[in-house]
Amino acid sequence: MLNIAAIISEYKAYYLNNGQNMARLKTLLRFGMVTDGICTPIMTDETIYQMAIAKMKSLVQSFQKAWTPKGELEFVPNKIELFKMKVDLDVYPDDIEATWLGFLTKNSLSRKEWPLIRYIMESYILGQIQADMENNEIYKGVYAAPGIGVAGLDGKSMNGFKYMLQKTAVNRDITIGALDKAIIYDQFEAGFELVTEEYQNSNMVICCAPKWRRAFLKDKRAQDVYTISGPGQIDDTLDFAPARVVGLPSMIGTNDWFITPADNMLSIAKKSENMNKIDVQESKRCVSFLTDWWKGVGFGISEIVWTNVAAAE
């Protein structure tokens, strides 16, 4: 739908050509799919991506002539569910013809050919899909089945990374306390010390909201051990560790953090190309935009995730 109530209130319900054009249509900043960009992408035709974690118990023992078998190979199932989501949007282009926005109309009887439709496609729908995924779904999402005939709610289209942390992460920490801008470098360093030594030489990411990454950089700059000539010499890595702090827009509004190998974050997709394609249909004087795809996220191995996110009750 189009909401032009404020335009009509301010500029009245008629069109005057006063030179208005696309350049006068301003847009707010929207995040792209930043979180998805640091994940390991996996394309599938499945709706539940099934994996198994193989664990081998110790084999080596002292020698004796008697046959004494020792060891066990265990396979533990791990699955990531994909969720089908969609875009349904109806627009009646005639609504803007007798308004300040009339320059987005055309004489063609086919409303699909009006400049408004191209503007919506190029300037909004594709970017809004990415922003919605980042802001509402990929970290904070908790799936809830929609009511029949009722549009689904924001943040209810899939289970995001926070849900997976609450349900499956086994290494939870409350010892470093709530994140504090004054000591956050020490806090993240202490968080990394919780990582088992087998993984302390792995390429790790420490994920948090962007404000906490910036606080980390400022606190690192404030350390007395550094002699620098400019802020560009301060990076987002922990000293003496292959770990970097990543600020994820999907985590905005939270004080959460989690640490895991960079390739342990999985983004599973089916029909993902449809996130960048829109079917435009016209029925009478209504123009409809639609697309659909499948998405799921999770961790390849939950045992190598460390976080301050509490377990689900």
Description:
With 313 residues, the protein is an alpha/beta fold. It has one domain. The protein is built from 6 helices and 12 strands. It has helices spanning 5-11, 34-38, 115-137, 161-168, 184-193, 210-222, and strands at 40-43, 48-56, 73-81, 83-91, 171-172, 204-208, 243-247, 258-261, 265-270, 279-283, 286-299, 306-307. The strands form 3 sheets. Strands 1, 4, 9, 10 and 11 form a 5-stranded mixed sheet that branches. Strands 5-12-8-6-7 form a 5-stranded mixed sheet, covered by helices on one side. Strand 10 (279-283) and strand 11 (286-299) form a beta hairpin. The radius of gyration is 26 Å and the shape is globular. It starts with a helix and ends in a 6-residue tail after the last strand. The model has no long low-confidence stretch (mean pLDDT 88).
Number of domains: 1
Number of helices: 6
Let me know the average pLDDT. 88
Radius of gyration based on Cα positions = 26 Å
Helix content: 10-25%
* Dominant shape: globular
Alpha-beta classification: alpha/beta
The main β sheet shows up as: 5 strands, mixed
